[in-house]
Amino acid sequence: NFDPPHLTDAAATYLHRVGRTARAGRQGLAVSFVTERPRDVAAVHAIEAKIGKQLHAHETNEDEVLKGLGKVSKAVNKAQLLLSEVGFDQKVEERKKKRKRGEGQGQTANGDDADKARRV
């Protein structure tokens, strides 16, 4: 899922994103992979402080991780291929260029001035 935050104030964003695993009153499960590096430990502590609970650790071994690695690699490749087919990278670049030029700010989807649309 979403990587744990490495800044204390990013814990709220992380919690919001992983919270989306439980939608419409249903239960969900979020799994985050962290190491024993001080940076990861600090991120986990920030999340625990924000929610007021201690997170549960699931110890794993290298063989267990390697079993799933092939599956993950295939899924990533498939997703990248699908994104490429629909021109996702080009759309991202177009949006970045528009942002740099300041286009699209203060406009509704049909190009009207957003302030005028709100006043009507």
TrEMBL record:
<feature type="domain" description="Helicase C-terminal">
    <location>
        <begin position="1"/>
        <end position="66"/>
    </location>
</feature>
<feature type="region of interest" description="Disordered">
    <location>
        <begin position="92"/>
        <end position="120"/>
    </location>
</feature>
<dbReference type="GO" id="GO:0003724">
    <property type="term" value="F:RNA helicase activity"/>
</dbReference>
<dbReference type="InterPro" id="IPR027417">
    <property type="entry name" value="P-loop_NTPase"/>
</dbReference>
<keyword id="KW-0378">Hydrolase</keyword>
<keyword id="KW-0547">Nucleotide-binding</keyword>
<protein>
    <recommendedName>
        <fullName>Helicase C-terminal domain-containing protein</fullName>
    </recommendedName>
</protein>
<dbReference type="InterPro" id="IPR001650">
    <property type="entry name" value="Helicase_C-like"/>
</dbReference>
<keyword id="KW-0347">Helicase</keyword>
<keyword id="KW-0067">ATP-binding</keyword>
<dbReference type="GO" id="GO:0005829">
    <property type="term" value="C:cytosol"/>
</dbReference>
<dbReference type="InterPro" id="IPR050079">
    <property type="entry name" value="DEAD_box_RNA_helicase"/>
</dbReference>
<dbReference type="GO" id="GO:0016787">
    <property type="term" value="F:hydrolase activity"/>
</dbReference>
<dbReference type="GO" id="GO:0005524">
    <property type="term" value="F:ATP binding"/>
</dbReference>
